[in-house]
Amino acid sequence: MATEFSPMQLLKRRLFAMRNGIVSDSLRRAGCPHRIVFGLNLPQLNEIATEFGPSEELAEALWADTPLRESALLAPMLYPAEKLTIEKARGLVDGVMWHEDADILCFKLLRKAPFALALATELCASDRPLSRYTGLRLFFNIVAAHPAEALAAAEAELRRPDAISTLAAMLKEEASFLAGEG
């Protein structure tokens, strides 16, 4: 009798088979807060996401699987952009554990949302540094369409006593150039 596996089980089996101890150890040394790190790289994760295709249910199950780094990175790759609401996006941002999670969330999902500008602006006004980081990263993904707003967000961040200064300075430079001020 053949064993039937759920999509989540199949995905986890695939992740386990592709694990890379060297990358995993490097990520742990770099401060990755996820308890389990298989060490897959982005091309491998993109390949898996393509194989499984969009699935809101699978993406939400992966996002809830906070111990595993690869779950946090695959979830935004699998979440159907057309089903994303601003409330759901806020919940995803609240679940971000570190910079890599935020980077992939912004690049693979949030930038496609019709409310990306409003969300980026909202996040940049947060008191939570990781939310502000996510807002700045989201602005990087939409800066070409909204240079003035990105410039304002970068300048506001640079005025903060706890500024994420390197990222904000890079965004300011890019936005200034695109706005014709640089």
Structure description:
This protein is an all-alpha fold. The protein contains eleven helices and no strands. Helix 9 (about 130-140) packs antiparallel against helix 10 (about 145-160) and helix 10 runs antiparallel to helix 11 (about 165-180). The longest helix has 14 residues, at about 130-140. The mean pLDDT is about 95.
Salient structural properties:
11 helices; 182 residues; mainly alpha; 0% strand
Summarize the structure.
The protein is an all-alpha fold and 182 residues long.
Helix content class: 55-70%
Number of strands: 0
Q: Give the CA-based shape.
A: globular
The low-confidence runs, each spanning 5 or more residues with pLDDT under 50, are none
Q: In whole angstroms, how far apart are the ends?
A: 67 Å
How many helices? The count is: 11
Name the beta content range. under 5%
Roughly what is the average pLDDT, rounded to an integer?
95
Structural class: mainly alpha
Order of helices and strands: HHHHHHHHHHH
CA-atom Rg in angstroms: 18 Å
Architecture blueprint of SSEs:
Blueprint: H1 7-17, H2 21-29, H3 42-52, H4 56-64, H5 69-78, H6 86-94, H7 99-108, H8 116-124, H9 129-142, H10 147-158, H11 165-178
Helix pairs in contact: 3-5, 4-5, 5-7, 7-9, 8-9, 9-10, 9-11, 10-11
